Structures are given as C-alpha cells and as structure tokens.
Amino acid sequence: MDTVHDLGGIQGFGPIPNTTENDTVMFSEEWKARIWAIAMMSMTKLSTDRTGWTLDWFRHVIERLPPDLYLRLDYFDKWNLAVMATLVDEGVADVEEFLAGKARGEGFEYKSPTPVKEILETKPRFKLGERVVAQRDVSANHTRLAGYIRGRTGVVDSVMGLQPLPDLSAIGVIRNEHTYVVRFPMAELWPEASDSRDSLLIDMWDSYLEPV
Amino acid sequence: MSTYDSEKVAKLHRELHSHLPSEPALRLKALETVLVEKGFLAADGVDKWLEDYSENVGPMNGAKVIAQAWTDPDYAMRLEQDADAAFVEVVPTAPHNYNLRAVFNTPQVHNLIVCTLCSCYPLGLLGMSPSWYKSAEYRARAVRDPRGVLSEFGTDLLDDVEVKVWDSTSDRRYMVVPSRPAGTDDWSKDDLANLVTRNSMIGTVRDLSPVGGAG
C-alpha cells in the first residue's frame, strides 16, 4: 500500500533535526520510555498468546495513521495510538475505556487463531551477481517494497536467509521466502546522481524481484 | 484475534486521536492504566521492563564489539560472517538470533544505515535509536542525498570514497563498524570502546580520532 510512510527519496524536507543529540539519551521524556516498554511487552504477550498478531500487521497499523498525523505526531505518540488501536482490534480493551482512561472491569478475552504456516521449499530464484528488476506495482496490503526502487534494475549483492513475506505476514499468513541484498547504483535511481559512484543496498524478498 | 482489517484500524486511529487528550503524557497514562486494570500488564511491569532494558541494552554493547574487532582480526572476520554469534561472544546477555549484519568501513568505503519505511534499528542490542534517525527528514533524504546528510553531521567525504547506503527494509538489522582511528595502537579495549559513538555505528560519523589522549 502506498501511504506517506514510504519516505525514501521524497523531496522537500529540511535539515536533519537534533544531529548533536547526546549518546546517553535513550528517551528524552519519561512518557516515551513507558510507551516503548508497553509496546514491547504488548507485542511479546500477543505473540506468546498466539492471537495471530504479527510485527508486519503492527507495522501496517502504524502506516494506517491518517497521513497528516503520520508526519506530524511524535514517534512515540504514534506508537501509543497504534498500540491502542491494536489492543482494541484484539479485544483487550475498547475505545471508550481508553478515552475514559479507566477499565470497565478486570479481565479480557481474545480469540486465538494461529497464523497459517507455509514453508517455501524452493531454492532461491536468484544468485549472487545476477541482475534483477524490482517489481513495479504493489497491492493495497502492507508491503516492504519501497517505492523508489520499483521498476529499477540492480544486482544481487548477497543471498541472505529466509524471512516471512511481509505482504502475507501482515494478513496472518507466514510464507518464508529467500531474501537478498540488492545493490542499485545511485545513478540508476536519481537524475541528479548521474555521475555518482555511490550505491544503495536494500533488503528484498524473492517475489519482489524479476530477472532482467 | 488480529482482524488484519486495514480500514478498521484507520478508523480507530481517527476516533482515538479526535477524542483522547492532546497531551501525549496523558495518552500514555490512559493506555497504561487501562492495561494494568485489565490485567493485561502487571502493575510494576513497565518499571521492571525499563530497568532491565537500561541495564542490558545500549550503545556500549556495540562499542565493546567494535573495540574487540579492532584488536582481534580473527574476531573481526567472525563479526563479518556471523554478527549474531560474534556479538554474543562479547555481550553474553545479547539475544542469540537477532539477525544482525555488521558492515565495515574501509578507506575506500563508507557505510550509512537508514530505514526509509519505518525506523528499524537494532533496539535489542544498541538501545533506542537517536531521535534524528526516526525523523522524516533523515528517512527521506539518506537514500537520495547521503553526502548532503553526512555533511550536516560534520562528515565530509572525499570523492574517491564510495558511499554505501543500506536501507533496512527487512527484519535484518545493520550496524556499521567504523575504522579504528590512527594513533590508538597502544590503547586498551576499554579506552577504544569509549571512542565509539552511537552515530558512528549508524554511519553519520566516520572519523573517531580522539581529541585528547587515552582514558
């Protein structure tokens, strides 16, 4: 799905903020640390309880923030909304309870379907050094195929391990696919980089690629 | 259960955002209170989690690994080939299957890490990422204008150094191993580790030359 989260290469942004931030600052404010902890603990609990929750689905929940909020809200405030939306979706609490800041009662229930597990047995379709083209279009679901490399030609820089395809994992289906690092010359990606020898390396799933 | 219903969560976001207090700290309070009252989280769960995180996770983990790689060429090779196993050798409390990959700076190559689609970072090893790493500015510009971004961090590269920008789109995490600065031959591993900064492990800083002496 093409939403504003796919920021790579978007022009018009200004200088990088807070470049001199101190290394020891993990969380600039207490509420940020607490949201982080709650998010991590919630993820662990939903995984352990096998509700069908996946990290890719959670990423998609964040991506579905209204575009203006996605760009405007603090990172941790976005996580707060995404954790609330997730837990409403799972049946842990309802919207009214979060709005009231108070639970109606103790206890909660969720149903527990386990994601379907399909293992891809085939060998990687591409080999080291092979030229590949990134798929041009994506579906309305979650994907990790970044917009700026679609339709571009690159070279397989390394053949890495299996990982669930995010597009399916985000709807509860685990299909492990081979992943690669694909190298794209900057000159192939951006008009202003036509003389550049720099390169962009990006993780790709097998089904995101086609042979040249 | 997860419904995987994209439109449903989009609607939930709007509803929650419109009616919750605008102050983020109050939103957090609502979240934490409801989850504890429900019994979804233990009352002291958040404090315990944060205590454990601050004790075991942070940039020093990566700094120790890099100091080891600087002083032991065999270790550096293991770090390049199997970063998870090499990390655990130096930081025994680190997760065993983190799916980490270490990329090495050389005189000819400079590495820069970004996650354009969210803000993926080795959070379970190096702690929370810097706020600039999560900014829209960095995510948008690092893949298109890496040299411009680097110069905002005071890192100006010569034309003969190749920049490799790694966009971390999968569940593999990247860490840059910067080059050991000159004049540190007789330094201890602890002193070397103290030279390594969080930004250098992402690649926005290249030169770790000490300002003063060791210690």
From TrEMBL, chain A:
Classification via Pfam families: NHase_beta_C (PF02211), NHase_beta_N (PF21006)
Keyword Lyase tagged: yes
Entry keyword set: Lyase
Positions of the Nitrile hydratase beta subunit-like N-terminal domain: 1-105
Top-level class of the enzyme under EC nomenclature: lyase
GO molecular function: nitrile hydratase activity; transition metal ion binding
Reaction(s) catalysed (UniProt annotation): an aliphatic primary amide = an aliphatic nitrile + H2O
Residue ranges constituting the Nitrile hydratase beta subunit domain according to the UniProt record: 121-211
Coiled-coil segments on the chain, per record: none
Enzyme Commission (EC) number: 4.2.1.84
Family in the record: Belongs to the nitrile hydratase subunit beta family.
Listed name of the protein: nitrile hydratase
Organism name: Antarctobacter heliothermus
UniProtKB/TrEMBL annotation, chain B:
E.C. number(s) listed in UniProt: 4.2.1.84
Domain Nitrile hydratase alpha/Thiocyanate hydrolase gamma: 23-204
Catalytic activity: an aliphatic primary amide = an aliphatic nitrile + H2O
Pfam family, one: NHase_alpha
GO molecular function, one term: transition metal ion binding
Keyword Transmembrane belongs to the record: no
Tree of life domain: Bacteria
Principal EC category: lyase
Keywords, alphabetical: Iron, Lyase, Metal-binding
Positions bound to Fe(3+): 115, 118-120
InterPro entries: CN_Hdrase_a/SCN_Hdrase_g_sf (IPR036648), CN_Hdrtase_a/SCN_Hdrlase_g (IPR004232), CN_Hdrtase_asu/SCN_Hdrlase_gsu (IPR023900), Nitrile_hydratase_asu (IPR018141)
Family label: Belongs to the nitrile hydratase subunit alpha family.
Protein's name according to its UniProt entry: nitrile hydratase
Upper classification of the organism: Bacteria, Pseudomonadati, Pseudomonadota, Alphaproteobacteria, Rhodobacterales
